[in-house]
Amino acid sequence: MQEPHDNFFGLILPDGVILAFIVLCAQLLTSIHILSTKDQVRSAIAWIGLVWLAPVFGLFAYFLFGISRIRRRAKLAREKRGLPPRTGALADPDGNCLADVCADNVSYRWLAHDRLAGRLTGMPVTADNTIAPLRGGRQAYDAMIHAIEAAKYSIALTTYIFQADQAGRRFIKALVRAKERGVEVRVLVDAVGNLYGLKPVSNLLRRHDIPVGVFNPAKLSWRLAFFNLRTHRKLLVVDGIHGFAGGMNIRKHHLERSDGSPIVQDTHFSITGPIVHQMMDTFADDWVFTTSEVLKGRTWFGSLDNVGAASSSKIVARAIADGPDEPRQKSAMIIESALGAARENIKIITPYFLPDEALLAALEQAALKGVKVEILLPEKSNLPLFSLAAFAALKPLIRAGCQIFVGKPPFDHTKLMVVDSNWVMLGSSNWDARSLKLNFEFNIECYDDAFANHMHDWASQKFVQSKSVTIAMLNKRSFIKRLFSRVLWLATPYL
User: Fold this and answer.
1) CB burial readout 186-203, b (16+ within 10 A) else e
2) What is the mean pLDDT of residues 481-494?
3) Could you tell me if 158 and 183 are in contact, meaning their C-beta atoms sit under 8 angstroms apart?
4) CA distance from start to end of the chain
5) pLDDT, tens digit, for every residue of 397-433?
6) Of 391, 345, 383, 350, whose CA–CA distance to 366 is shortest?
7) For residue 1, what pLDDT is reported?
8) pLDDT band at 293 (very low <50, low <70, confident <90, very high)
9) Cα angle at 392 between 434 and 477, to 5 degrees?
10) Which region, left, alpha or beta, applies to residue 10 given φ > 0 means left and ψ of -120 to 50 means alpha?
11) The pLDDT of residue 218 is above 80
């Protein structure tokens, strides 16, 4: 039998009633917090439903995963660099806009898109950049190692997965040699990606006195609340003047077999020009966020005078650093804007395809306007459950006129979007909720007809070698597989 206790009203109440009253108060206060802080109605409804239908579990889950404490940490990190916090206030960035750096014949649709992207990112476009695709791990890793070996002042490297295997050991040795000749080296690895393989690369680098940061490590504290937020960025910046970006991790899976055939297909990019300073700015933000050390000055932001002057490529580009510390989903909004600007064709290559309703609607609208929309997915994913969920959402796109293709093995990890042979987006983001809402990502948008035509032609070769997906093909799958894929589809926001 429960023992009664006096409460502050002088009433005698059983323990169970007091506990129920406390839980009720917690539910009310939590619901007020949800209504005050959530911007999306579906998210608010889901959290309020969980809090009231499963009180103890719901309250605990919301305390851990529903409160965005990471924005507070990001604000403090930027203040340490002497930069204003990202408040979401929209204003044209200081610097050039597209009309300033492009020929007079640039169309209004891209001028309008540039205005949107500039206000979202707070970054101006940069001119006179060179961007060269590196196809496959061997070509990409060789170029990156060569740049590290040539470094004179600084090396900044961040990646999601960095394994101490056949590929990773080459990077470790090159970084150690750079440090020994006096180069400043900083390496940032994700806490989850650092655990791939038996030997965390962070421990190996620390043995050689190389400064290493581990992004968002799991700790039994309130910080566990945002352990689900990972850095998925892949950046290498050398001397502040030469950069590499894309979707390629550092692991032997990206290397070719002895006969030259790839285990995994992927594409990375070698970059020079003013855009590299925007890349370094993103790394410096992540580094101070993780370690509290501020990186600044010519050591890290080198002189760009005459960099790439011998090249005929003069690509206009902008960095898109996105993450859950941002008030808006910048990458998704920029993608939607580019889809709306399309007039002729859209080519999308992505390993993971589970876009939200807004992106799906934008794709359907583009196809219904007569734009040729082509999407290439892997026939066999390295995450089979993810692939099943993706196929569950393809029918509406096909009915609207989108053309879906699946590429033959090996698994293609490439992330690329080309619109009208005018605009290219490359980087680390996948077309799913994790990339566009939860992960810290880095992408680059490019305005250049020659580069866009080159990437369009290169992408077209992949589409030619792929197989078209039809409604009939989707219907031929077994009932169990179709049903299971729809069940997985319900978990789309969390995959």
Assistant:
1) bbbbbbbbbbbbeebbbe
2) 72
3) no
4) 46
5) 999 999 999 999 899 999 999 999 899 999 999 999 8
6) 345
7) 47
8) very high
9) 140
10) left
11) no
Q: 84-88, 133-137, 377-381 — which is least confidently predicted?
A: 84-88
Query: Other C-beta atoms within 10 Å of 495: how many?
Result: 16
φ/ψ (deg, to 5) at 290: -90, -40
Q: How far apart are CA 351 and CA 246, in angstroms?
A: 13
Strands 403-407 and 467-469: antiparallel
Position 196, amino acid:
Y
The per-residue pLDDT for 274 is: 96
